[in-house]
Amino acid sequence: MRLEMRWGDSARTLAADFGQRAVAHDREGSFPHANFADLQRAGLLALAAPRAWGGQQASVAELAEVIGAIGYGCPATALVLSMQYLQQRGMFRAGSFWPEHLARQLVQEAAGSVSLANALRVEPELGTPARGGLPATVARRTPDGWRLSGRKIYSTGAPILRWYVVWARTDDAEPLVGSFLVRADSPGVRIETTWDHLGLRASGSHDVILDGVPTPLDHAMGLAAPGAQARDVNAQADMTVLLGALYTGVALAARDWLLNFLRERTPSGLGAPLATLPRVQEAVGRIEALLLSNQRLLASLASDLDRGEQIALAESGLVKTLVMRQAAELVQEALALTSNHGLSRRNPLERHLRDVLCGRIHTPQEDSALVVAGRHALEQGQRTA
C-alpha cells in the first residue's frame, strides 16, 4: 500500500469522527482539542517535516489530500493543521530563515506529542502584513535575550499552540524586522478570547497579547531591514494548495449532503424525488463542473510544486482566487436547490456555507491577487511589444 493512501485513508477515518463533533464545536465556538490528540496518534502532526528530523516529508499532493479529508469533516481543525504544515514546509525550503536546531526541535516535539506552531502576524492597526507596513509588536534586546510586546489578532489555533512565530520589529533606531520563536506558555503571554465569527467558529483564532515576553537571542529569525526580506514565492503557492484543498473539502461535504437530500426529498406534488427533475440534474452538473475545476487546478499546482518548480505570485494568486470563488459558488448552488431546508440549522449545509465563505479572506485577498496578475500581464505585454 502506498504511503499517501495510508495517510489519506487515516485522515478520512478521523474526519468521520471530526464531522460528528463539528456540530457542537460550531454551536459553542469551542476548540476541538480531542481532534488534535487523534491526529497526533495517527502520526499526522509532523507529516510535512523532513524525515531526517523525525517527520514524514510528505509531498504537497499528499498534504493536500490529508487537509481536504480533514476539511470535509471539520474545517477548523484542517485550518490549524494547514498552518502547522506550512510552518514545516518553510523550515527546510532553500533559503529558509529557520536555524536547523530550532526546526529540528519543533519537528521532534510534533512527532512525539501534541505540539503545534503557527505564525502570528496580523495586528489591529496594521491589518494583514501582505499589504505592507511595519509591525507594532516590538522585540527589545536585553542581556538575557529578547522581550516581546504587542497584540496579534486572528491567531489561529491559539488554545492549542505550543509555539508562536511572531512577526515583530526590533527597538533599534533603525529597526530590523523578522520572526521570533516564542513558547506559548512563556510568562507575559495572554490569550484574549475574541474569536466569534460567522464561520470556522472552532478555529480558536483569538487575540494573543505579549507583555514583555522573554525568548532567547537565537530565537530571532530572518532579521533584516524593512522590505529587504527575501520573498519566498512558493510559500504562497503552498498556502494556495493547502487552503484550497480545505475549502474544496467543505464544498465536497456540501455537495454530498445535497445529493442525498435530492435523492430522498419527494414532494407530494411531484410524486418522485427531486433528483429526477432535469433542471435539478442540470444544476448538479454545474456543481460537478465547479468541483472538477477546483480539483484539477489544485492537483496541477501541487504537481508543479512537487517537481520543484517556482510558481509566480500572479499565478498562485489567481488559482487561490478561482478556487475560493468556485468553492463558495458550489455551496451557494446547493443552497439554491434546497431552499429553507438548506438554511435550517438541523442540516449541515448552512454551516458549510458559513465556513466556505471564510476562504476568500485568506491572503492574498481577491483584489490584491487580481492587481498582481493584471500588472504582470500588462508588464509582459510591454516587454513583448
TrEMBL record:
Organism taxonomic ancestry: Bacteria, Pseudomonadati, Pseudomonadota, Betaproteobacteria, Burkholderiales
Domain Acyl-CoA oxidase/dehydrogenase middle: 123-213
The Acyl-CoA dehydrogenase C-terminal domain, residue ranges: 243-363
UniProtKB keywords: Flavoprotein, Oxidoreductase
Domain (Acyl-CoA dehydrogenase/oxidase N-terminal): residue spans on this chain: 9-84
Stretches that traverse the bilayer: none
InterPro entries the record matches: Acyl-CoA_DH_C (IPR013107), Acyl-CoA_Oxase/DH_mid-dom (IPR006091), Acyl-CoA_Oxase/DH_mid-dom_sf (IPR046373), AcylCo_DH-like_C (IPR036250), AcylCoA_DH/ox_N (IPR013786), AcylCoA_DH/ox_N_sf (IPR037069), AcylCoA_DH/oxidase_NM_dom_sf (IPR009100), Mito_Isobutyryl-CoADH (IPR052547)
UniProt cross-references to PANTHER family, sorted A to Z: ISOBUTYRYL-COA DEHYDROGENASE, ISOBUTYRYL-COA DEHYDROGENASE, MITOCHONDRIAL
Protein name: Acyl-CoA/acyl-ACP dehydrogenase
